[in-house]
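Exercise 7.
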Amino acid sequence: MPILPEYSLTGRAAILASAGGDDTPMLALALAEAGASVFVVARRPEKLDDALASLSAAGRPGAEHGGIATTLDTPEAVAQVLADFDRIHQRVDILVNDSRSLFAKPLLEISLHEWDEVQSRNLRSAFLLSQAVGRRMIAQEYGRVVNIISGLAERGLINGSAYSVSQAGLLSLTRSLAVEWGRHNIRVNAIGVGWTAAEDIPLDVQLQEQLVRYIPVRHKGHPRDIGPLLAYLCSEACDYTTGQPVYVDGGLNAHP
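Solution. The predicted structure, written as tokens, is:
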């Protein structure tokens, strides 16, 4: 991925926290190709392995990568993540929260446990990690936070109430932290994504799906589509942009 010099992340250390989606390796790779050292927090060990393999393939000199497989549902778990991070890095410049653990069920059938689990995975984890990392960013008077959210943060979907609420919460957290931390040279933004596929599917095959025909650009996205935008939002060049959701979704969010 070609990166403009103004968007370089060379010398920066990033924490990428993922709910475990297939996008994680591409997000890690985008940060690494821009020059950052990346520490991956994944819910499942196999997803961590995929991300670390992607980082190894980036081959950026001077970058030190690492990671841990864990859940981020308690302050103690977050403290352990930062303790492992501190063994490699002296400061954290970038935080990327990819909290998109999918869940679909009619509202009347959702149990309280299921509701709480979705909010914990998608919202509580981002809150806890942002709180812990935010303290460090405020102390150093610099930071970039990017929350990866679904377009359902601003749209409704049948059987999507629990998931949509968690994404709307992340969007609200993005805007609130942008206002709260702006005076500390911390910029907080969101990247909204639509329907994506980690593999390359021929267009004629994609168009057989009714869903794809609803997307204005007539094809699904790929995780690499957000790489350049992620690099910009994590860079020093992102100085006057904060509190904004930027949708890379093929026009879905503009759809009536």
